[in-house]
Amino acid sequence: MPELPEIEVLRRSLEPHLLGDRIERVEVLNPALREPVDAAGLRRSAAGREVAALRRRSKYLLIDLAGGRTVVVHLGMSGRLTLAPAGAPLEPHEHVAFHLRSGRRLRLRDPRRFGMVLALPTADLSADPHFAHLGVEPLEPGYAGATLAGAARGRRGPVKPFLMDATVVVGLGNIYATETLFRAGVHPTRSVARISERRWERLASSSIEVLRHAITQGGTTLNDFADGEGRSGYFQVALAVYGREGEPCPACAAPVRRIVQAGRSTFYCPRCQK
DNA sequence: CGGGCGGCCTGGAGGC
DNA sequence: TGCCTCCAGGCCGCCC
């Protein structure tokens, strides 16, 4: 489900509640996620620790704890991480619950089980195999057309899967790569070898605009995304082409087309995207 | 080595 | 109402 904007929205919604609170107890209800949850390790790392910071890297939420360890949460496709009041009943597909000093519990539900939860030493995060290969953060300084152009040098293949390649730039999944291409006026099948400097600049700035706009709208809720307090996002109404096969392009009214690239749906306007 | 594809899972939607 | 097929926001490993 969630791409960069959704995780950033989640981070911001949880931050005021979790900062300074303490994880009293960790309950692993069902360890079967993409990587089996190491219940004992998670407990050792997190139980009795105060939350020192909430960060995000790529599509991972990072919960830094006092004592030098970080709880890493990935929502996969269908994960939800929400705060529940004390005594709230277990919900279906609840995998992990962090019981807080405040009485609430931070719980992870994930029907499709593509998510993950692990605890790592905070200082070594970037060296961990989950993070070591990741590319630049698109909302941090230094990301620009030259970043993309440099990564594309010597490569071939269509630009859409390239934008979704997390070793190049992180956070762009199927929705936001699709919307970025529309905003930049670039055809999704165009080879990365045939994109000008100016187009790379446009792609970079378009991606930043799309991501920022989505964050201000609370992310995109197609089915299951919700922030830490269970609120849905609104960006789905602002999607220009994603999920809109056959509907008129918002710019020129030509019917939006759907194709499949690398096994994923791509939507584009055949007139606006060259 | 880079790119494409299947597989991991469950649930919801739509067709019949 | 029920059954079947298709599809879904991520990511990894295998294959060519």
The largest pleated sheet is described as: 8 strands, antiparallel
N- to C-terminal distance: 28 Å
Order of helices and strands: HEHEEEEEEEHHHHEE
By DSSP (H or I, 4+ residues per run), the number of helices equals: 6
Describe this structure in words.
With 274 residues, this protein is an alpha+beta fold. Helices cover 24% and strands 22% of the residues. It contains six helices and ten strands; from the N terminus they run αβαβββββββααααββ. The strands form two sheets. It has an eight-stranded antiparallel sheet. Helix 1 packs across helix 6 (197-216), helix 3 (145-152) crosses helix 6 (197-216) and helix 5 crosses helix 6 (197-216). It is globular and about 55 Å long. The model has no long low-confidence stretch (mean pLDDT 95). The structure holds a DNA duplex (16 and 16 nucleotides).
Compact summary:
The chain is an alpha+beta fold and 274 residues long. The protein has helices at residues 4-18, 39-46, 145-152, 159-163, 174-184, 197-216; strands at residues 22-28, 49-57, 60-65, 69-74, 80-84, 94-100, 105-109, 116-121, 257-261, 264-268.
Name its key features:
274 residues; alpha+beta; 8-stranded antiparallel β-sheet; 22% strand; globular; DNA-binding
Please specify the SSE layout and strand pairing.
Layout: H1 4-18, E1 22-28, H2 39-46, E2 49-57, E3 60-65, E4 69-74, E5 80-84, E6 94-100, E7 105-109, E8 116-121, H3 145-152, H4 159-163, H5 174-184, H6 197-216, E9 257-261, E10 264-268
Antiparallel strand pairs: 1-2, 1-6, 2-3, 3-4, 4-8, 5-7, 6-7, 9-10
Helix pairs in contact: 1-6, 3-6, 5-6
The chain binds a DNA duplex (16 and 16 nucleotides) through residues 1-3, 6, 32, 34, 59, 74-78, 93, 110-115, 154-158, 161, 164-166, 173-176, 220, 222-225, 261-265.
